[in-house]
């Protein structure tokens, strides 16, 4: 037997460490090549790791929630088949194959029979070969007492198997308790008795019927049982600590300690580096986005955009691409030389547009590659896919690398504007505030218009005040008149 150890790989360019989020296998499991063995959390995404080996899991070398460096052994896999101690390459060719289901070979007579089965050792069924849990219900014997009880019983709801005594608290002589594998009683005892109105009340209250003590004449849960259970549960909740805890507890028990790792750790490091390495300058502009709102409304009604989510963010993204083409230095990066005495400005002739996405795991900034080449419809599809993938936690490291300019849509949270921090490796970021109706002076008259505020932060080493103002003015011009995109 050979043990193969799988070392944590670099699943993204420059990955140095990752956290084991969850194992999908356990010792003794059989795995094939490319079977998913675990999920890891890198700097900003969750990635499924496939097995490079086939065989049996011997040991999990790293526990869940532990962060390890790239190259660390995380699992060992033996090359023998699970459940077969003899490797295939040394097994006698004439040995008969073990059956997956059915009877054991005659030479295993010394093995114990299944509990309560009454079978002889030579005919004991293998695990998994016994009758299904609902076999008695689907094919009841004639004149079976259990079958007649089932026909007359109230509607029932499936729960975990329980003993007959737990269901009725009475003598179980009238229950079909023919033994099955492991001695589990099947049929009636696999369900909790309850009438439809009681079941509905339980669902509305979020009560699991299996947790309620049944007092009905036939062992069913009654309305009074639910009332009693709910009262007890409310009393327990009243005694429980709220968010603020108990004033009398020691201070260390009133402070929740959250380890900084994963997305939060990566975000904190990047923001500190950017804030203290790049001198930020921020400017703001109020924009009449009424025509953008009308344009979005027409796109939603268009047959070409049927089934595609369209929002003002789509127009802003197109505006940023258009404005960057007119002001190329905002789509650049500042690169220090190795001796730190000289530096270069790298102007990018492509746009990998980053979109800041708030997810349950924290802030992520995946980017749309070569966004300058996409039509309005293609850009809308790319934005939809980016948001869906990010919220599901399926964004890959490569999708968050190589960004050239970022947009953050803080308006989705009802915020007017802000001063965003530039992503490392970039020199500009645009914050898109909420769009809402405000009084606006147009042709000397005060009328309600759809107004938004744009905020931009720039690396002052690359983007001067004049350049940042011209770029923001160009973005605002598109929002005020989307028809300019046709030029």
Give the SSE map.
Elements (H helix, E strand, L loop, with lengths): L2 E5 L9 E7 L6 E2 L4 E6 L4 E5 L4 E6 L6 E3 L3 E6 L56 H4 L6 H8 L3 E3 L5 H5 L22 E3 L2 H10 L17 H17 L22 H16 L2 E9 L1 H12 L10 H15 L5 E5 L6 E5 L5 E7 L2 E3 L2 E2 L7 H16 L13 E4 L19 E5 L3 E7 L2 E15 L5 H16 L7
Parallel strand pairs: 14-17, 17-18
Antiparallel strand pairs: 1-8, 2-4, 2-7, 3-6, 4-5, 6-8, 9-10, 11-20, 12-13, 14-15, 14-16, 18-20, 19-20
Explain this structure to me?
The chain has 487 residues and is an alpha+beta fold. It folds into 3 domains: 76 residues, Beta Barrel (OB fold (Dihydrolipoamide Acetyltransferase, E2P)); 105 residues, E3-binding domain (Dihydrolipoamide Transferase, Irregular); 220 residues, Chloramphenicol acetyltransferase-like domain (Chloramphenicol Acetyltransferase), CATH 3.30.559.10. Helix content is 24%, strand content 22%. The protein is built from 10 helices and 20 strands. Strands 11, 14, 15, 16, 17, 18, 19 and 20 form an 8-stranded mixed beta sheet that branches. Helix 8 packs across helix 10. 27% of the residues are buried. About 21% of the residues have low confidence.
CATH topology of the largest domain: Chloramphenicol Acetyltransferase
Percent helix, as a range, is 10-25%
- Going by helix content, strand content and strand pairing, the class is alpha+beta
The overall average pLDDT, rounded, is 78
Poorly predicted ranges: 86-154, 156-190
CA radius of gyration = 33 Å
Q: Tell me, briefly, the overall form.
A: globular
**Which range does the strand content fall in?**
15-25%
Separate helix tally: 10
> Which CATH class of the largest domain is shown?
Alpha Beta
- How far apart the termini lie comes to 70 Å
Q: Give the biggest sheet.
A: 8 strands, mixed
Whole-number total of structural domains: 3
The CATH homologous superfamily of the largest domain: Chloramphenicol acetyltransferase-like domain
Tell me the total number of β-strands: 20
CATH architecture type of the largest domain: 2-Layer Sandwich
SSE order in H/E notation? EEEEEEEEHHEHEHHHEHHEEEEEHEEEEH
């Amino acid at each position: 037997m050979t043990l193969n150890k799988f070392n944590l790989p670099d699943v993204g360019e420059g990955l140095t460490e990752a956290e084991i989020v969850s194992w999908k296998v356990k010792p003794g499991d059989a795995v094939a090549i490319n079977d998913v063995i675990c999920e890891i959390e890198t700097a900003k995404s969750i990635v499924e790791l496939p097995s490079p080996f086939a065989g049996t899991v011997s040991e999990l070398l790293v526990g869940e929630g532990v962060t390890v460096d790239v190259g660390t052994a995380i699992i060992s896999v033996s090359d023998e088949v699970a459940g077969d101690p003899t490797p295939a390459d040394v097994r006698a060719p004439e040995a008969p194959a073990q059956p997956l289901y059915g009877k054991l070979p005659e030479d295993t007579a010394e093995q114990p029979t299944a509990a309560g089965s009454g079978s002889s050792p030579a005919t004991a069924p293998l695990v998994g070969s016994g009758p299904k849990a609902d076999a008695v219900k689907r094919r009841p014997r004639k004149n079976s007492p259990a079958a007649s009880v089932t026909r007359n019983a109230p509607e029932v709801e499936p729960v975990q198997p329980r003993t007959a005594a737990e269901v009725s608290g009475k003598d179980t002589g009238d229950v079909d308790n023919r033994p099955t594998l492991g001695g589990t009683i099947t049929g009636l005892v696999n369900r909790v008795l309850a009438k439809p109105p009681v079941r509905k009340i339980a669902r509305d209250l979020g009560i699991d019927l299996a947790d309620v003590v049944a007092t009905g004449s036939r062992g069913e849960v009654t309305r009074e049982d639910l009332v009693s259970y709910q009262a007890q549960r409310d009393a327990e909740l009243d005694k429980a600590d709220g968010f603020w805890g108990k004033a009398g507890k020691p201070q260390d028990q009133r402070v929740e300690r959250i380890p900084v790792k994963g997305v939060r750790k990566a975000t904190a490091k990047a923001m500190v580096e950017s804030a203290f390495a790049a001198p930020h300058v921020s400017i703001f502009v109020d924009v009449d986005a009424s025509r953008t709102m009308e344009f979005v409304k027409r796109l939603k009604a268009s047959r070409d955009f049927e089934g595609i989510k369209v929002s003002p963010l789509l127009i802003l993204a197109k505006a940023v691409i258009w404005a960057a083409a007119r002001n190329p230095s905002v789509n650049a990066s500042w690169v220090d030389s190795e001796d730190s005495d000289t530096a270069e400005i790298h102007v990018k002739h492509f746009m990998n547009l980053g979109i800041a996405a708030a997810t349950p795991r924290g802030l992520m900034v995946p980017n749309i590659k070569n966004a300058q080449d996409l039509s309005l419809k293609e850009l809308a599809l790319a934005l939809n896919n980016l948001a869906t993938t990010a919220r599901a936690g399926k964004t890959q490291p490569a999708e968050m690398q190589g960004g050239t300019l970022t947009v953050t849509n803080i308006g989705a949270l009802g915020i007017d504007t802000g001063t965003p921090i530039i992503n490392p490796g970039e020199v500009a970021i645009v914050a898109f505030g909420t769009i809402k109706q405000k009084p606006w002076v147009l042709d000397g008259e005060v009328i309600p218009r759809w107004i938004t505020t744009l905020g931009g932060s720039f690396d002052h080493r690359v983007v001067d005040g004049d350049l940042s103002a011209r770029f923001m003015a160009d973005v605002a011009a598109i929002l005020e008149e989307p028809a300019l995109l046709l030029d």
